[in-house]
Amino acid sequence: MNRKRLIPAIIAVFLINILIISLFSSASAASYRRGSTGSTVSEIQTRLKNWGYYSGKVDGIFGSATEAAVKKFQAKNGLTADGIVGPATLSALGISGGGSGKSENDVALLARLISAEARGEPYSGQVAVGAVVLNRIKHPSFPSTLAGVIYQKGAFSCLEDGQFYKPVSDSAYRAARDAMNGWDPSGGAIYYFNPATATSRWIWSRPVIVVIGSHRFCS
Predict the structure, then answer these.
(1) In what order do the strands lie in the sheet with 215-218?
(2) Distance between alpha carbon 162 and the CA centroid of its chain, in Å?
(3) How deeply is 117 buried, as exposed, middle or buried, from its count of CB atoms within 10 A (0-12, 13-18, 19+)?
(4) SS3 for 160?
(5) Using CA atoms, how far apart are residues 172 and 129, in angstroms rounded to an integer?
(6) Percent of the chain with pLDDT over 90
(7) Residue 192: in which H helix or E strand, if any?
(8) Nearest partner of 126 among 136, 118, 137, 134, judged by Cα
(9) What is the predicted pLDDT for the residue at 92?
(10) How far apart are CA 136 and CA 144, in angstroms?
(11) Total Cβ atoms within 10 A of residue 163
(12) What is the maximal distance between C-alpha atoms in the chain?
């Protein structure tokens, strides 16, 4: 190939590479905002509706009501309240783009909950807290997704007092993976509480399955 043909060929290859990189970047930075439509928007609306942030129709159309609900969810969960559902908000909603139930997003979310609720507890107690969350997913009285259980209003005090947003301990990540791999030191519990700090009279009525560290795990 002579020099006159080589230069245009090199330029063409360069431009194609730039286009490919741009397409991958756009895909990885997917976001949904007012005007967006489709099945993911429907899933966003469904989750917001289940958690009490949205009262409109689940129609797959990202309108002003959906935007307002997203802002409320973001403000409540320590995210930038801009009404745009980008990667961070998708992760908080438990929408990871079709990954498996044991995706790294799920591990990170469960680990954050474990760290906030069981920091300083024996390792088996940390795993047990994770197991309770997973047991709730299978129970008809609770939401059927990990994010749904964790963000259910009033379910975990750490989302109210700010502990949920503190740095996550290394042991919590290990505990999350162990719980997801089937270890359940709680014996199938769907509740737990610390008798020294519990303020609900109702929780004391739950049958105790096992005591680990400061927590009583109940059915």
Answers:
(1) 191-193, 215-218, 208-212
(2) 16
(3) buried
(4) helix
(5) 10
(6) 43
(7) strand 191-193
(8) 118
(9) 83
(10) 8
(11) 16
(12) 86
| Three-class DSSP category at 216 | strand
pTM for the whole structure = 0.57
Q: How many whole angstroms from its chain centre is CA 173?
A: 14
Give the other-Cβ count within 10 Å of 58's Cβ.
17
Q: At residue 158, what is the residue type? A: C
11-15, 22-26, 141-145 — which is least confidently predicted? Answer: 22-26
Residues 6+ apart with CB under 8 A from 113: 129, 130, 133, 150, 156, 158, 164
C-alpha 98/C-alpha 142 separation (Å) is 22
Cα 127 to Cα 180: distance, rounded to the nearest angstrom: 9
pLDDT at 25: 40
Q: Which two tokens stand for residue 72?
A: 């409320």
Residue type, 162: G
